Amino acid sequence: MRVQKLKFLFSKKENFYLTYGDGVCDVDLNKLLNFHLKHKKIATLTAVHPPARFGELKIKNNKIIEFNEKPQLTNGWINGGFFIFNYKIFNFLNNKNVMLERDPIQKIINKKNFMAFKHNGFWMCMDTVRDKALLEKIIKK
Hints:
By secondary structure, this protein is an alpha+beta fold. It is built from three helices and eight strands, in the order E-E-H-E-E-E-E-H-E-E-H. It has a single domain, classed as Spore Coat Polysaccharide Biosynthesis Protein SpsA, Chain A (Alpha-Beta Complex), CATH 3.90.550.10.
């Protein structure tokens, strides 16, 4: 596991940020850290509303009255890929090739030691060339 390889970089009482690197977000990292410290848990992730994959239409009497290209959804939350972990995360990791999101995170959730920092601002993933083009279009606006 890649995160386990970082253990030597941190002291036993230290908290650290971790991101996948494929998300673009305007999360306030200081607010995220303060939230994490306030709750005194092992892990905090940034929960975000996912963008819609398709354009949204508002229709009245069969006439389109509004068209929004890939709006940000306001219901439901997903993992935004920005975390803060306490050093204790390493108690849940091993050297096996296990995905962080599977067994380790589930064990932390089961121990009620995982918090969600709800971010309502901008978030978008950049997993594909299509995502890149859309982000470039947003930047130009």
